[in-house]
Amino acid sequence: MKPGVRALGVAESYRAEQTTLAGAVVRADRVADGFAYATATVGGLDATDAVIDLFDRLDREDARYVFVAGIALAWYNVVDLRRLADAVDRPVVSVTFEASPGLREALAAEFDGEALDRRLETLEAQPPRERLAVNDQTVFVRSVGLDAGAARDLVRAFTPEGGRPEPLRVARLAARAGDDLRRAE
User: Fold this and answer.
1) Each residue of 116-154: b (16+ CB within 10 Å) or e?
2) How much of the chain is in helix, strand and coil states, percent to nearest 5?
3) CA 152, chain centre distance (Å)
């Protein structure tokens, strides 16, 4: 991959009713060159809209891909990767960092009725997770707009060391700093 190819990484940090989402535009050669923030409701259903808003506010046509750290942000605020990819007109890759049996049981333990149904409907419409070895780590990847091979190549190209793609690593740091600032106000 060419060193100047850019991707937007979106990660979160939360401790209260709202999560701080940070977006970091990072080049494949590890240079960060853009940041934006948004918020989503903890336990809500607005994470997808918040990520779309973050992308729109950045106004970075040069960001060719979107990485999202996970699929259930802000305590089960499920991101609709397909709707996100359609809205931003970019391939979207969700990366998680731990094996899990899935979210169905966890969602059923926390929600019921319409709240559960909406989350399950969104979750079940997403592509399946695929295990991927990256450097000395294992991550789990879902992708929309890329076939499985291209998604694997993209994650590896943006992960020079460890298992966290650089756009997500930088976005996570920015989200924590933004959350600290928000809480201090």
Assistant:
1) beebbebbeebbebeebebeeeebbbbbbbbeeeebbeb
2) 40, 30, 30
3) 16
In the numeric block, the tokens 């999202």 are attached to: 68
State the Cα–Cα distance between residues 93 and 82, nearest whole angstrom.
10
- Whole-model pTM? 0.95
Model confidence over 25-74: pLDDT tens digits? 999 999 999 999 999 999 999 999 999 999 999 999 999 999 999 999 99
What are the b/e assignments for 30-64, b being 16+ CB within 10 Å? Answer: eebeebbbbbbbbebbbbbbbbbbbbeebebeebe
The values of phi and psi at residue 106, to 5°, are -65, -40
Residue 28's CB is within 10 A of a number of other CB atoms, namely 20
Beta strands (DSSP E) in 42-103 are: 63-69, 72, 77-78, 92-96
How is 19-31 classified by DSSP, letter by letter? EEEEEEEEETTS-
